[in-house]
């Protein structure tokens, strides 16, 4: 088993806010992240794929193809967007980094499986200090 990784970056705004809570409770739990006017991050997405090496290509998966899949199905839809308002696969969901990573997994996992590899991990760095890793269910 060998693991390969592809990193992509995107910039986006979001807000952490639970509409069933009071504004005071949202401020208490989410702090600045509950800002009515949203706030932004420069995210780094790292996708790790695993599998056996194809003897004909020497690849687990063609990294150029992985790049195109990630960009077309994920980062092009997220880059310079308001995650709460502009992104169909996040609509109605809490746009925490944890939820975003899980939703990215749901998109990428079948696309990677179609190519004979297995999605191992989606890592989403929100800041240089805060990151989430998701390994599927």
Overview of the molecule:
Helix content is 33%, strand content 29%. The protein contains 4 helices and 5 strands, in the order E-H-E-H-E-H-H-E-E. It has a 5-stranded mixed β-sheet. Strand 4 and strand 5 (131-134) form a beta hairpin. Helix 2 packs antiparallel against helix 4. It is elongated. The two termini are 20 Å apart.
Summary keywords:
137 residues; alpha+beta; 5-stranded mixed β-sheet; 4 helices; 29% strand; elongated
Short description:
The chain has 137 residues and is an alpha+beta fold.
- Structural class of the secondary elements? alpha+beta
What is the C-alpha radius of gyration, as a whole number of Å?
17 Å
Strand order of the largest sheet: 3-1-2-4-5
Summed over residues and divided by their number, the pLDDT gives a mean of 97
Helix content: 25-40%
Largest sheet: 5 strands, mixed
Global morphology: elongated
Q: Say how many strands there are.
A: 5
Count the helices. How many? 4
SSE topology sketch:
Elements (H helix, E strand, L loop, with lengths): L1 E13 L8 H8 L8 E13 L11 H16 L2 E2 H4 L10 H17 L4 E8 L5 E4 L3
Parallel strand pairs: 1-3
Antiparallel strand pairs: 1-2, 2-4, 4-5
Helix pairs in contact: 2-4
């Amino acid at each position: 088993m060998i693991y390969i990784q592809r990193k992509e970056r995107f910039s986006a705004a979001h807000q952490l806010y639970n509409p069933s809570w009071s504004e005071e409770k949202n401020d208490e739990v989410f702090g600045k992240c509950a800002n009515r006017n949203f706030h932004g991050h420069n995210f780094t997405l790292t996708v790790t794929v695993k599998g056996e090496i194809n003897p004909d290509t020497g690849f687990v998966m063609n990294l150029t193809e992985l790049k195109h899949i990630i960009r077309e199905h994920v980062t092009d839809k997220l880059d310079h967007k308001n995650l709460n308002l502009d992104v169909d696969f996040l609509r109605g969901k809490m746009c925490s980094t944890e939820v975003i990573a899980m939703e990215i997994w749901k998109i990428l996992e079948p696309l990677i499986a179609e190519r004979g590899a297995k999605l191992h991990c989606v890592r989403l760095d929100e800041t240089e200090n805060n990151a989430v890793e998701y390994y599927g269910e």
